[in-house]
Design goal:
Strands 1, 2, 3, 4 and 5 form a 5-stranded antiparallel sheet that branches. It is built from 1 helix and 5 strands. Helix content is 5%, strand content 40%. By secondary structure, it is mainly beta. Strand 4 and strand 5 form a beta hairpin. The chain folds into 2 domains: 66 residues, no CATH class; 32 residues. This is Zinc-ribbon 15 domain-containing protein. InterPro entries: Double_zinc_ribbon, Zinc_ribbon_15.
């Protein structure tokens, strides 16, 4: 007897709790804080759904779910002034004095 099984478990967003709550750990694009559910599919038809244990971060760009504790800080709003870009490190997003050539926190060139 031969049994062919097509299906699996995947995660799906159930509800967005806070949009733009952090940044993705892979692609650095904005990520949302969401409640998610796991879905068992057989032959591409949802058969069983159950909720996730705790809220998670979800990146809409690369479809990645990851724990909230791993998220990067949310992206800063963009402004037209060049002063806002100079005052913060572009890698670790910490404030840096304008006369510095390197970030004192992460060591990257400014």
């Amino acid at each position: 007897m031969f049994f062919f099984f097509v299906g699996g478990v995947e995660q799906q967003v159930r509800q967005v709790l806070r949009s733009g709550a952090g940044r993705c750990i892979v692609c650095k694009s904005p990520a949302d804080l969401v409640e998610y559910e796991k879905v068992l599919k057989l032959f591409f038809v949802p058969v069983w759904r159950w909720p996730g244990k705790e809220p998670s971060m979800y990146c809409r760009n690369c479809n990645l779910f990851f724990p909230q504790s791993y998220s990067l800080p949310p992206p800063r709003p963009t402004t037209d002034s060049a002063l806002a870009e100079v005052d913060r490190c572009r890698f670790c997003d910490r404030p840096v004095e304008p006369e510095f050539s390197f970030c004192p926190f992460c060591g990257s060139a400014l």
